[in-house]
């Protein structure tokens, strides 16, 4: 507007509006409600990042959910076992009775029914066979040979010694017994040959040495005899070449679990199996009964398999399908394997050693449990990963968040206390920061899930958020059980990580000058005539500003003018004050005892402009041309924590007052 001259003034004044901006902090950040939480009552602002991003209304989506599923699984450690047959049992046998006639002993026959007045004694040394039936050789651990004699001679036998010889070993002495005197006419004696530790053949002989006593008035009836009876005891041998009767031996072995994550009291398997490869390394056919004592099939039957004819040197493979089996181990971290072997009695002589073995190779598969009664220790369940972009308000990189809190929303449908481990990876143009969180949450069950909110704070969390990541990746793992509680768990039990929410406290430290750039406004003033008069009659010009602020820190204000709306703050035509000068300064608004804004402060200022600067504010009469004004507010570094609220504001009114000299040129 052009003001008419008033006498006696010799100047004419033009007033041009430059800025009339009212900026409320809440309006600047209103489009960032995804990341800022504003208290409607107090105006307090908190940085808030939620994952997943909840819908505007209703329940947020679940960040990640996983059922226990195949995590209830263990693969027992494969193993191989060898069991020796051990000492062989050779049954005892009674040898045929041996008679030594008196005529054989004396070398002549005596008349029967006669009385001999005197018969001088004589020595004898004779050998009788004592062969063992169906035996070629034995290496004996324990056992012996019992022998008894009945003296039918009419005279005593004196100095009697029995020697057991092995004719298969050149007549080597095996053992001997000194029986002394055996009375006449039915006297008897007995003894035992020890065979322990002896190696013998089946070709044994008994040597008798001694003599007959002198006799008087001996009555001889027939040809009396010395009767020898012998009995081989049941022997335990370490090696035998013989007809081998049936032998039995057995063993129990275990397959260990690789760790103590699943400690089973009773469980039901949904899948899995066990393969046993059995090899007979003993040169005789046998049958082997294999059993899994800890397992029953779906009908409650024990798991037993009989190999009815296992030939020496030919492996046999047996597979147990364990699906739907009930597993109730004696040891919660083992599976037992039992086997009983019975050899077939040989029909020909064979050589068997006590060290002869059967070998069992146990090939394991993953055992998946559908139900476990027992203890769990650190069972890991991976949840889906999540990644999202974050767009923080500009200038936030110049502030330092004072404190922050992380809320982790979880739901437990599993009957064990559990931990959630979350690896957060934040990335921006400057690099990557990580944050690891582990928190414990309470047990629940599928029918009545328990929801829990876990709160996390601390310096590491604040450091992570001050990195101001532009993307945040979440990698969660739930870890079930601590190995102490006995509970029931099934595959459909679940855990879910519903969401994670980062939330800062409203107080922060401004580390460096931080700019607030409100949207520019149109301040177009089109007047070609006024431009001409300023060119010819310009006297002076001044920009007058009045700034009202409720911000609790001092601020600087600078006006930016441009004909291009997009470049007001980046490529202005003119700034007021000039960029070489400091901005208009406004002191901090008054605060209450808590450091919160408690009123406003107003500052007025003026700045002289030259003619060329003034012309930048006035456009030609061209409707296609426009002029835009922006008010940049600069918050300086505070050095201490402050709280700026959404309700804080700054009002800026600026006008240009131009004086023109009143002369003839002005009135043309």
How are the elements arranged and paired?
Layout: E1 11-24, H1 25-29, E2 36-38, E3 45-51, E4 64-67, E5 73-74, E6 79-84, E7 88-90, E8 93-94, E9 98-101, H2 102-106, E10 114-119, E11 123-129, E12 135-142, E13 144-151, E14 157-166, E15 172-182, E16 187-194, E17 199-201, E18 204-212, E19 215-220, E20 225-232, E21 235-242, E22 248-256, E23 262-271, E24 273-280, E25 286-296, E26 302-310, E27 316-321, E28 326-327, E29 334-343, E30 350-353, E31 357-364, E32 367-382, E33 386-389, E34 399-401, E35 404-413, E36 418-428, E37 431-441, E38 450-456, H3 459-466, E39 471-482, E40 487-490, E41 494-504, E42 508-510, E43 514-516, E44 521-522, H4 528-537, E45 538-549, E46 555-562, E47 574-576, E48 584-586, E49 601-609, H5 611-615, E50 628-635, E51 641-642, E52 649-661, H6 664-667
Antiparallel strand pairs: 1-52, 2-3, 3-41, 4-41, 5-32, 6-31, 7-21, 8-20, 9-20, 10-19, 11-18, 12-17, 12-21, 13-16, 13-20, 14-15, 14-18, 21-30, 22-29, 23-28, 23-32, 24-27, 24-31, 25-26, 25-28, 25-29, 32-39, 32-40, 33-39, 34-42, 35-38, 35-41, 36-37, 36-39, 42-51, 43-50, 44-50, 45-49, 45-52, 46-47, ...
What would you say this structure looks like, in words?
- By secondary structure, the protein is mainly β.
- It has 4 domains: 11-32 and 511-667, no CATH class; 45-69 and 375-505, Jelly Rolls, CATH 2.60.120; 76-85 and 247-365, Jelly Rolls, CATH 2.60.120; 89-242, Jelly Rolls, CATH 2.60.120.
- Strands 5, 22, 23, 25, 26, 28, 29, 32, 33, 36, 37, 39 and 40 form a 13-stranded antiparallel beta sheet that branches. Strands 2, 3, 4, 35, 38 and 41 form a 6-stranded antiparallel beta sheet that branches.
- 30% of the residues are buried.
């Amino acid at each position: 507007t052009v003001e008419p001259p008033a006498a006696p003034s010799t100047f004419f004044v033009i007033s041009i509006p430059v800025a009339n901006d009212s900026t409320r902090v809440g309006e600047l950040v209103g489009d960032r409600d995804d990341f800022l939480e504003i208290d409607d009552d107090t105006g307090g602002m908190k940085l808030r990042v939620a994952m997943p991003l909840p819908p505007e209304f209703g329940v947020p989506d679940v960040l990640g959910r996983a059922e226990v599923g195949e995590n209830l699984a263990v693969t027992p450690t494969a193993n191989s076992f060898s069991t020796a047959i051990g000492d062989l049992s050779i049954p005892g046998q009674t040898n045929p009775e041996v008679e030594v006639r008196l005529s054989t002993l004396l070398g002549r026959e005596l008349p029967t029914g006669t009385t001999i007045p005197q018969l001088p004694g004589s020595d004898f040394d004779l050998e009788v066979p004592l062969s063992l039936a169906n035996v070629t050789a034995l290496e004996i651990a324990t056992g012996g040979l019992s022998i008894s004699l009945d003296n039918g001679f009419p005279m005593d036998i004196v100095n009697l010694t029995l020697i057991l010889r092995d004719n298969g070993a050149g007549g080597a002495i095996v053992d001997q017994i000194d029986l002394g005197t055996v009375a006449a006419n039915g006297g008897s004696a007995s003894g035992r040959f020890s065979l322990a530790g002896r190696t013998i053949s089946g070709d044994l002989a008994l040597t008798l040495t001694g003599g007959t006593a002198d006799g008087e008035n001996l009555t001889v009836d027939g040809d009396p005899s010395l009767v020898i009876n012998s009995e081989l005891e049941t022997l335990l041998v370490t090696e035998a070449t013989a007809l081998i009767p049936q032998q039995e031996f057995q063993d129990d072995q275990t397959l260990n679990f690789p760790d103590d994550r699943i400690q089973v009291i009773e469980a039901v398997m949904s899948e899995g199996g066990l393969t046993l490869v059995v090899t007979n390394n003993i040169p005789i056919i046998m049958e082997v009964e294999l059993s899994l004592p800890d397992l029953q099939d779906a009908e409650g039957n024990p798991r037993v398999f009989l190999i009815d004819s296992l030939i020496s040197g030919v492996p046999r493979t047996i597979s147990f399908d364990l699906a739907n089996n009930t597993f109730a181990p004696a040891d919660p971290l083992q599976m037992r394997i039992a086997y009983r072997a019975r050899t077939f009695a040989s029909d020909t002589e064979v050589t068997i050693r006590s060290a002869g073995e059967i070998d069992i190779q146990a090939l394991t598969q993953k055992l998946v449990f559908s139900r476990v009664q027992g203890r769990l220790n650190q069972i890991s369940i991976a949840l889906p990963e999540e990644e999202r972009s974050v767009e923080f308000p500009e200038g936030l990189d110049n502030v330092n968040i004072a404190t922050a809190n992380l809320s982790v929303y979880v739901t437990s449908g599993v009957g064990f206390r559990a931990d959630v481990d979350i690896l957060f990876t934040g990335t921006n143009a400057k690099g990557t920061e990580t944050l690891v969180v582990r928190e414990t949450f309470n047990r629940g069950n599928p029918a009545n899930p328990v929801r829990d909110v876990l709160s996390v704070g601390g310096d590491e969390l604040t450091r992570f958020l001050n990195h101001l990541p532009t993307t945040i990746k979440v990698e969660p793992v739930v870890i079930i059980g601590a190995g102490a509680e006995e509970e029931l768990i099934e595959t459909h039990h679940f855990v879910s990580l519903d969401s994670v929410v980062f939330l800062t406290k409203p107080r922060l430290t401004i580390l460096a000058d931080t700019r607030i750039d409100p949207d520019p406004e149109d301040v177009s003033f089109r007047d070609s005539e006024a431009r001409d008069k300023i060119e010819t009659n310009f006297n002076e010009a001044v920009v007058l500003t009045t700034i009202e602020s409720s911000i609790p820190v001092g601020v600087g204000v600078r006006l930016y003018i441009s004909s291009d709306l997009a470049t007001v703050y980046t490529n202005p035509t003119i700034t007021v004050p000039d960029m070489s000068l400091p901005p208009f300064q406004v002191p901090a608004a008054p605060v209450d005892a808590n450091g919160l804004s408690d009123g406003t402060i107003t500052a007025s200022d003026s700045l002289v402009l030259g003619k060329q600067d003034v012309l930048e504010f006035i456009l030609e009469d061209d409707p296609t041309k426009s002029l835009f004004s922006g008010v940049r507010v600069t918050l300086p570094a505070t050095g201490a924590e402050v709280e700026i609220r959404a309700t804080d504001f700054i009002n800026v009114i600026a006008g240009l007052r131009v004086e023109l000299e009143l002369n003839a040129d002005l009135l043309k």
